[in-house]
Amino acid sequence: MSVAVQPEKILRELRELWDELGRAEETPGGVLRACAMTLLVAAEEQGEAEQVRKTLGVLMHDHPSRAIVLRSQEGSGVEARVFAECWMPFGRHQQICAEGIEITAGGAELSEVVHVLLPLMVPDLPVVLWCRGGRAFTDPAIEALFPLADKIIFDSAAASDAKAALQLLRSLRARGRRVADLTWTRLTGWREVLSQLFDDGVLDPDAVASVRIVHGGSGASTCALYLTKWIEQGLPGARVMVESASDEPGIRAITLLGGSAEVSIRRTGPSCVEARAGGRSYRTPLPPVTEEALMREELSILGPDSVFDRVLA
Amino acid sequence: MNVANPFADPLRFDRRVPECTVVIFGANGDLTKRKLMPALYRLAYERRLPASFAILGNSRTPLSDDAFRDKMHEAVKRFLEDSPFDEDIWTSFARNLYFTAGDLNDPELFSKIGAKLGELCRPNVLYYLSTQPSYYGTVVDGLGAAGIGESRPGGWRRIVIEKPFGHDLESARELDTRIHKVFPEEEVYRIDHYLGKEAVQNILAFRFGNGIFEPLWNRRYVNHVQITASESIGVEGRGAYYQEAGALRDMIQNHLLQVMATVAMEPSAVFEPDAVRDERAKLLRSIKIMKPEEVPLHAVAGQYRGFRQEPGVDAASQTDTFTAATFYVDNWRWAGVPFYVRSGKRMPKRTTDIAIQFNTAPHALFASQDGGPPTRPNLLILRIQPEEGISLRFMSKQPGSGMRLRPVSMDFNYGSSFGERSPSAYETLLVDAMVGDATLYTRQDMVEASWRAVQPVLDDWASRRFDFPNYEPGSWGPAEADAMLARNGHRWRNS
Lengths: 313, 495
Ligand SMILES: NC(=O)c1ccc[n+]([C@@H]2O[C@H](COP(=O)([O-])OP(=O)(O)OC[C@H]3O[C@@H](n4cnc5c(N)ncnc54)[C@H](OP(=O)(O)O)[C@@H]3O)[C@@H](O)[C@H]2O)c1
Description:
Largest sheet of chain B: 8 strands, mixed
CATH topology of the largest domain in chain A: Rossmann fold
Oligomer: heterodimer
Number of strands of chain B: 14
Number of helices of chain A: 11
Distance between the termini of chain A: 45 Å
Order of helices and strands of chain B: EHEHHEHEHEHEHEHHHHEEEEEEEHHHH
Strand content of chain B: 15-25%
Largest interface: A-B, 45 and 34 residues
Bound molecules: NADP nicotinamide-adenine-dinucleotide phosphate
Strand order of the largest sheet of chain B: 8-9-10-7-11-12-13-14
């Protein structure tokens, strides 16, 4: 179903889609429409439509929203189509659906799309902009979308210039915009395991003299930068060192030293880490985080996030 | 070590449990296998338990630590709901499972438990009573005599008690006196797993997080309230236990009166354990106590055909497998509004919901077209199970010419609008007990107030012989339950 890009037309198409869903034979209990926000997705150009749809399909269950996916495709004019993401919750008789709009535009036209977007936002609900991939850090057409959103989600791991990416996030934050970085979100599991050592009283924060972070992959990743800063803020008296190992990217280990005590958290497998303190050790799950899980976490925080703000500052 | 954690991030990290040992009495029983152990494992899986968390099980059956671990391994795999089972995590979790066999009647057992606790050396201890209620007093006495019931600086000792809390007002008080000889009230956690359900907690969010409903939540606008908890199954092999309890004791005195209190209580000034519980307790104390002559009008007992033939059940049993009762609340907000509460086994389906029926529009502007009443009352339904959610029924114009109205339903489906996995009631309640949050636990004054509310019915029924059975399996209970509402011009919503 394709329509020339006129907001009224798109909205009409959406209404028709709902009517159709309501009449469909496989939904005798009717469909339930759910919407908690507008989720604008600025996607990279090729080949990722499927992945975005898959992620949205999972996200909709927890954060039902009107999703508007913007894709730029050289050579194509501006085109839009509407779709619904439906699921039948286990053991229920009524289908739940959330709606989506996909807008494709050639690079030049993308900046004009902003005017089409305004009337398509669901009134009275928050707007979240998810800038998927690295283009958001450099493309002025995407920058033009920033003022539409209550929260903007980036992934600095995808940026070609990590420093510039952080600079952009900082300047948006300084202008009062809520920003998130999935590279920070990826650290939640590690941070939680580390934090728990202090909950359990395994370590006295004042006794920690140094911390060693080992991370895989090369270059100055924002992931290691974030973690370093967060630890420095928590343990102002400790020296934090970062070592890079050449295997898979991401954090591999964190070791804390203080007096005679050594505590370490190490990845022991793809979904597990092991914490060792004194003679004791235990394993705790830390499975690879999917894009869906990262987005789910970020979409559930629409208010201020003081910890990230401090680390970003 | 009591230093603030510099790495706390409450926005992103879940609440976590302090270092402690959970001692489960009745660790070989059904509740432990089905609910407690899967909930504890799930908490470990979600990284909410500290590494040094320990569980010490007790029951009569002699088991080694390893045999107990094997048993629990099997149980968790079997009863874990909607979550994955990970052998690695289990291995780590199971290392902290221990077992001490022994009979609760043997005072030596408690010294053995004390010695084991000393060996495990965790600062805090949570005792969980998952045995037959007749042992509650014995366990508490034993813990007291062995000197392992008392909190000390840097280490609390708490006790979690499963319902029933007594079998009437007097026995509830006796039990309480016995418990308080060892544990102060703030360390006693009486579990009512209904209060741990997300949907019940959502009633508070719905009432006090929205501005539009609370102004209508009173006698001026609400005509009556119906609370139904029905089960399609019978007693399923628990006939002997159930025969002693009955629907009024097993469901209404505790769960449904707690739900009623949640629906009808005043907002508390702050969302803190004692503030919320004070309001719940106040509401329960405001329930009008029936006079003996009112009981036959306000309470109906039922028993399904076939109950007396269930294993373990007396052939002349007088047990109520169904109870319906009308309660009134003596306060300004609710004076004169009936709260109809019913619960039964072998009913057409398993459902728990609360229906708030509002008054009809004061003036019928639209004539009836279909022979039905011209307008119908708005109905707000808070669904607790199986589909958690909220529906609002209102009138709408039927499409087409003329002014025909028909009721339509606006639905909010909690579980599916927010598809995240909700923690089970036991996960929520266990964490609450361990972090010391008693909001969702009942307090002795609440227990007593609800016994007081049902005591006249218990007394009346004890002196009577019912002509049971009086309802067919698969029906909505005896005709008298319909008649009870009909006297007020009301009808049960049977859907
Ligand atoms: N089952 C449920 O779903 C459920 C739901 C809500 C509340 N409850 C409440 O939870 C409690 C436990 O119920 P349940 O169904 O788990 O009971 P259960 O299956 O009968 O288990 C009773 C447990 O107590 C132990 N026990 C009995 N007598 C003992 C003694 N003299 N000394 C030491 N241990 C003894 C048994 O040990 P042995 O097996 O080794 O003999 C067994 O482990 C009851 O108060 C019940 O009302 C249960």
